[in-house]
């Protein structure tokens, strides 16, 4: 499979054009990956709504009945309950690691033990998220 | 955590305690009363003392996520409860010279050492689990 990249001007829309003879698993995976990077969730920033690609999210946290989504260096409020966000993100490699937190498993850099049977996942943006003891079996199952 | 997972965790703690208590009884016996002779019922002592030490672990369970400070405070309370339970058994035992304050102090220290070692073993087990999770994480991220 050859790869061709063409830089275009700002007036043209960006497009990924996959030419295939047969829909193989490889072609399907490439198409799924492109779709994944385009899917996003609606968030509010300074009172305005915008769309954040799911692939840029590191984790989401519920605080005081509000849900916040964290990217590499920003935080946005999401106007959804955490369980609703979990249903949306479940198929995108997000996992509930505590009562308040969903984490993107693709953004996890390392895992280390914490006190009382809990674990700490260290994310690529330098933040740490605690995995509650209750959710450790779910993490084991998700990674297998 | 499911009942099964809780039971497995408690069994692990129980048998670690049985081992540590057996070693402690041997060391203390050889140091203070090397010529003592016991019947077969003496083999029940480590099993009984370990069983008595398990209920105070319930203090570590909480519906909300505990902070590190809360975990440490609860660990201290757990140790105090274990000390109270084991020393009260010692005071009711005819073979234990509880009028010897020095010996009672040594026993209290030994209980604390066993408590620390049991937690250290749990930490070592969690560290091994974290390493396994990291290996699974690398495979998971590479396959996605």
Give descriptors for this structure.
heterodimer, A: 144 residues, alpha+beta, 5-stranded antiparallel β-sheet, 3-stranded antiparallel β-sheet, 3 helices, 21% helix, globular, B: 144 residues, mainly alpha
Outline the structure in words:
The complex is a heterodimer of chains A (144) and B (144). Chain A is of the alpha+beta class and 144 residues long. Chain A has helices spanning 25-38, 82-89, 136-143, and strands at residues 40-45, 48-53, 59-63, 66-70, 75-78, 94-96, 101-104, 108-113, 119-123, 128-131. In chain A, the strands form three sheets. A five-stranded antiparallel β-sheet of chain A has the order 5-4-3-7-6, with helices on both faces. In chain A, strands 8-9-10 form a three-stranded antiparallel β-sheet, with no helix packed on it. In chain A, a hairpin with a 4-residue loop joins strand 9 (119-123) and strand 10 (128-131). With 144 residues, chain B is mostly helical. Chain B has helices at residues 3-32, 44-53, 68-92, 101-143. In chain B, helix 1 (3-32) runs antiparallel to helix 4 (101-143). Chain B is elongated and about 65 Å long.
Structure class of chain A = alpha+beta
- What are the low-pLDDT stretches of chain B, counting only 5+ consecutive residues below 50? none
Radius of gyration of chain A, in Å, reads 18 Å
Q: Span from first to last CA of chain A?
A: 30 Å
Mean pLDDT of chain A: 87
Following the backbone from N to C, one meets helices and strands of chain A in this order, namely: HEEEEEHEEEEEH
Q: Quickly give the structural class of chain B.
A: mainly alpha
Q: Care to count the β-strands of chain B?
A: 0
Could you give the distance between the termini of chain B? 27 Å
Sheet of most strands of chain A: 5 strands, antiparallel
Q: Based on CA inertia axes, which overall geometry of chain B fits?
A: elongated
Rg value of chain B = 19 Å
The total strand number of chain A stands at 10
Summarize the helix and strand pattern of chain B as letters. Answer: HHHH
Helix content of chain B: over 70%
How would you describe the shape of chain A? Answer: globular
Largest interface, by Cβ-Cβ below 8 angstroms: which chains and how many residues each?
Answer: A-B, 26 and 25 residues
Strand order of the largest sheet of chain A: 5-4-3-7-6
């Amino acid at each position: 499979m050859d790869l061709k990249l063409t830089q275009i001007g700002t007036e043209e829309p960006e497009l990924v054009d996959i030419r295939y003879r047969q829909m193989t698993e490889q072609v399907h995976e490439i198409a799924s990956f492109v779709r994944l990077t385009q899917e996003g969730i609606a968030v509010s920033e300074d009172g305005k709504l915008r769309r954040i690609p799911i692939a840029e999210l590191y984790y989401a946290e519920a605080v005081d009945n509000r849900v916040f989504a964290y990217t590499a260096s920003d935080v946005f409020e999401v106007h959804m309950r955490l369980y609703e966000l979990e249903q949306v993100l479940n198929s995108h490699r997000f996992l509930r690691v505590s009562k308040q937190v969903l984490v993107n498993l693709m953004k996890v850099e390392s895992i280390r033990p914490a006190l009382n049977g809990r674990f700490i996942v260290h994310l690529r943006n330098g933040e740490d998220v605690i995995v509650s003891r209750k959710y450790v079996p779910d993490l084991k199952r998700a990674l297998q | 955590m499911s009942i099964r997972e809780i039971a497995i965790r408690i069994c692990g703690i129980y048998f670690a305690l049985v081992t540590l208590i057996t070693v402690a009884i041997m060391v203390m016996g050889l140091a203070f009363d090397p010529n003592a002779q016991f019947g077969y019922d003496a083999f029940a002592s480590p099993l009984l003392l370990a069983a008595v030490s398990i209920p105070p672990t319930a203090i570590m369970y909480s519906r909300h996520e505990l902070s590190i400070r809360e975990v440490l405070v609860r660990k201290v309370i757990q140790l105090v409860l274990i000390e109270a339970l084991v020393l009260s058994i010692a005071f009711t035992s005819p073979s234990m010279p509880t009028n010897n304050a020095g010996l009672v102090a040594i026993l209290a220290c030994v209980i604390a050492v066993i408590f620390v070692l049991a937690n250290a073993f749990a930490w070592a087990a969690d560290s091994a689990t974290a390493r396994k999770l990291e290996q699974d994480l690398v495979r998971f991220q590479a396959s996605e």
